[in-house]
Write a structure and sequence with these properties.
Layout (H helix, E strand, L loop, with lengths): L2 H13 L6 E5 L1 H11 L4 H8 L9 H7 L5 H12 L4 H6 L3 E8 L5 E5 L5 H10 L9 E3 L2 E5 L8 H6 L5 E4 L14 H4 L7 H26 L3 E4 L14 H17 L9
Parallel strand pairs: 1-2, 6-7
Antiparallel strand pairs: 2-3, 2-5, 4-5
Helix pairs in contact: 1-2, 1-11, 3-11
Length: 269
Amino acid sequence: MRGLFTAGVLDVLMERGVKFDGAIGVSAGACFGCNYKSGQIGRVIRYNRRFAKDPRYCSWASLMMTGDLFNADFCYRALPMELDVFDGAAYEANPMEFHIVATACTTGQAVYRRLDRADETSFRWIQASASMPLVSRPVKIEGGEYLDGGLSDGIPLRYFESIGYGRNLVVTTRPHGYRKHPSNKLCLLKPLLHRHPAIYRALKTRHVWYNETLEYIDRRVADGAAVLIAPEAPLPISRVCHDPDAMQRVYDLGRKSGESCDLTPLGIV
């Protein structure tokens, strides 16, 4: 739910008419970021508020009955196709590229996919990118199994630069200066992840590459090759939230950051 900060930023940028050649989203950034390509201002906060307390959307009952805390059928079929319709035609007509990151269960390595179509396969890749271990089943696509992209490349600036994007806007949901520490609960998770030892190894080393990536972002910002938008303080929301007002507050913080950001280093006035 920290991704609602990002949703607020992106809505302001869409209202300002800011166009990008490409975007890449990870986890909630994939679920919410695809709305930039479809041009649907306000959709993210609208459906999250609407279904905040709906057990079909996110609940322990869903986890027990389906194996997914965020109900896959509801989130990736009913919601975008029936309840708050995703504009697939606008998505496919927009020349902006949209990419996601997922983590391969067999290797623990990042897998990148460009999603040009608003179809079932693309929604499955977005689901994979946002499927947190332990509270989600691995998503099976094209012969592989995948989980949350944040396990392997949570802020994929280097990857985007490697495919030709030289000037980038980076939106994070942690304050500038945040650093991730090793988890002291990993020993408890190891038995629960016995079927996916590569995912356990990815969790064990995640703080190392994550902190190095944050330092790399700072260098790129200093070089004028990137702009960083981050909350001023830790966001007052947890990964899972059922309070529409709390969601709105985090979204509004994102809007405030989007309204005050200076994009001139990227050539955007």
